[in-house]
């Protein structure tokens, strides 16, 4: 048995499950949340669709142990959601349900679709919803209901378009998108675009100014990787601390990190997306913070897990600000950080000290650059903060190759 703790519909749940228990069975049998239906048990029909850490997923092919630390939302968790209430009304008005078995999954997927893509003028609802099967209605009512709510785009709380996060369409769906109506004998529904509003003024962009980051020795003891890094910002300590005492503003400058507003108990919850070579991971978890305004010191501790790779991480970050002087003699601030973390699972291979040193150096440089840019111009447009990608990994590899060549050339001379 494995002990897991997860947030289900806003309630913290701790339970012991077998490693082979699927999330759908756990929700239905352990928590009695029977609104999540099980149909094909192969991730095809979509009846078991739930929301995990803000993205929809098939609970019948997701292990419960892989959701340790995740936020899960079932159809029961949308009772007070305004968009879901509007969808339920539209499904009823458009006769979009008959036996109702597919309806919970249809509603969860439809809500996700509308929040992500309702502003697209060429939205093809049939293609987007083709990952959810219905045995009764012939889809006409379902499509009409979603089209009705999607047309209310100005009043719909949309999400930024990042990547495909809905059910996968059938084979050849993208090339066949334009021909869907001809194949079914029904014209593909279209969503009228929202009324154009005023064009927002472009925010200024900041010229690049690199910040040198010094990374200390990396040590690994009892599975914990520990290192230090520091950098100097040409800003007064009061201004730097005003930004870095706020976890939300710090997270906005950290590559790959997204932080939820602190809870009433002061606990933090967030997510970090990591792309390292062929591995893509999305850690979600929670943590705590301790802040000392007099000493300008912050300590943040947290733990999280990636449900896709099964990797787990825990860590501690401590940073302290002190007054310094810039090369020009102007007032400056030194930010000294102590970072310690542990990795378990497939991503543990990236805990090797040589790779960690290069990687954290580049991550630290990106963080320092963003903090400096934010202090120089609070309204400036920052580059998207992504952790990983081809450029980051190439930089790490070229850095290692460069050091090897330097050592070889030094020996030859």
Automatic annotation (TrEMBL):
<feature type="compositionally biased region" description="Low complexity">
    <location>
        <begin position="165"/>
        <end position="190"/>
    </location>
</feature>
<dbReference type="InterPro" id="IPR051452">
    <property type="entry name" value="Diverse_Oxidoreductases"/>
</dbReference>
<feature type="domain" description="2Fe-2S ferredoxin-type">
    <location>
        <begin position="2"/>
        <end position="78"/>
    </location>
</feature>
<dbReference type="Pfam" id="PF00111">
    <property type="entry name" value="Fer2"/>
</dbReference>
<dbReference type="InterPro" id="IPR023393">
    <property type="entry name" value="START-like_dom_sf"/>
</dbReference>
<feature type="region of interest" description="Disordered">
    <location>
        <begin position="157"/>
        <end position="198"/>
    </location>
</feature>
<dbReference type="Pfam" id="PF01799">
    <property type="entry name" value="Fer2_2"/>
</dbReference>
<dbReference type="Pfam" id="PF06240">
    <property type="entry name" value="COXG"/>
</dbReference>
<dbReference type="InterPro" id="IPR002888">
    <property type="entry name" value="2Fe-2S-bd"/>
</dbReference>
<keyword id="KW-0560">Oxidoreductase</keyword>
<dbReference type="InterPro" id="IPR001041">
    <property type="entry name" value="2Fe-2S_ferredoxin-type"/>
</dbReference>
<protein>
    <submittedName>
        <fullName>2Fe-2S iron-sulfur cluster-binding protein</fullName>
    </submittedName>
</protein>
<dbReference type="InterPro" id="IPR010419">
    <property type="entry name" value="CO_DH_gsu"/>
</dbReference>
<keyword id="KW-0001">2Fe-2S</keyword>
<keyword id="KW-0411">Iron-sulfur</keyword>
<keyword id="KW-0408">Iron</keyword>
<keyword id="KW-0479">Metal-binding</keyword>
<dbReference type="InterPro" id="IPR006058">
    <property type="entry name" value="2Fe2S_fd_BS"/>
</dbReference>
<dbReference type="InterPro" id="IPR036010">
    <property type="entry name" value="2Fe-2S_ferredoxin-like_sf"/>
</dbReference>
<dbReference type="InterPro" id="IPR012675">
    <property type="entry name" value="Beta-grasp_dom_sf"/>
</dbReference>
<dbReference type="InterPro" id="IPR036884">
    <property type="entry name" value="2Fe-2S-bd_dom_sf"/>
</dbReference>
């Amino acid at each position: 048995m494995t002990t897991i703790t997860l947030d289900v519909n806003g309630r913290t749940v701790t339970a012991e499950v077998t490693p082979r228990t699927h999330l759908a069975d756990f929700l239905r049998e352990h928590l009695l949340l029977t609104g999540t239906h099980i149909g094909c048990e192969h991730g095809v029909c979509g009846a078991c669709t739930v929301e995990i850490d803000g993205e929809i997923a098939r609970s019948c092919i997701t292990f419960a142990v892989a959701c340790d630390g995740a936020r899960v939302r079932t159809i029961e968790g949308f009772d007070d959601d305004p968009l879901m209430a509007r969808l339920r009304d539209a499904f009823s008005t458009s006769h979009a349900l008959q036996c109702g078995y597919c309806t919970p999954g249809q509603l969860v997927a439809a809500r996700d679709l509308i929040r992500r893509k309702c502003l697209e003028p060429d939205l093809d609802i049939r293609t987007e919803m083709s990952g959810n099967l219905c045995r009764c209605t012939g889809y006409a009512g379902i499509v009409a209901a979603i089209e009705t709510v999607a047309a209310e785009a100005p009043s719909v709380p949309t999400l930024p378009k990042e990547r495909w996060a809905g059910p996968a369409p059938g084979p050849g769906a993208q090339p066949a998108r334009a021909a869907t109506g001809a194949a079914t004998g029904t014209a593909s529904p279209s969503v009228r675009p929202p009324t154009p509003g005023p064009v927002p003024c472009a925010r200024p962009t900041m010229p690049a100014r690199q910040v040198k980051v010094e990374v200390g020795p990396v040590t690994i003891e009892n599975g914990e990787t520990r290192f230090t890094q520091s950098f100097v910002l040409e800003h007064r300590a009061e201004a730097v601390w005003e930004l870095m005492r706020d976890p939300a503003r710090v997270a906005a400058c950290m590559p790959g990190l997204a932080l939820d507003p602190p809870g009433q108990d002061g606990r933090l919850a967030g997510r970090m997306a990591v792309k390292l070579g062929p591995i893509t991971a999305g850690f979600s978890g929670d943590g705590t913070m301790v802040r000392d305004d007099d000493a300008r010191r912050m300590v943040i501790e947290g733990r999280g897990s990636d449900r896709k790779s099964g990797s787990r991480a825990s860590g501690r970050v401590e940073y302290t600000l002190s007054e310094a002087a810039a090369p020009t003699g102007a007032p400056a601030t030194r930010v000294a950080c102590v970072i310690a973390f542990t990795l378990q699972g497939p991503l543990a291979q990236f805990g090797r000290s040589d790779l960690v040193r290069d990687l954290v150096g580049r991550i630290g440089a990106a963080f320092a650059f963003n903090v400096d840019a934010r202090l120089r111009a609070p309204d400036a447009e920052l580059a998207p903060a992504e952790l990983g990608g081809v450029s980051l990994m190439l930089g790490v590899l070229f850095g290692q190759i460069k050091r090897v060549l330097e050592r070889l050339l030094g020996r030859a001379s």
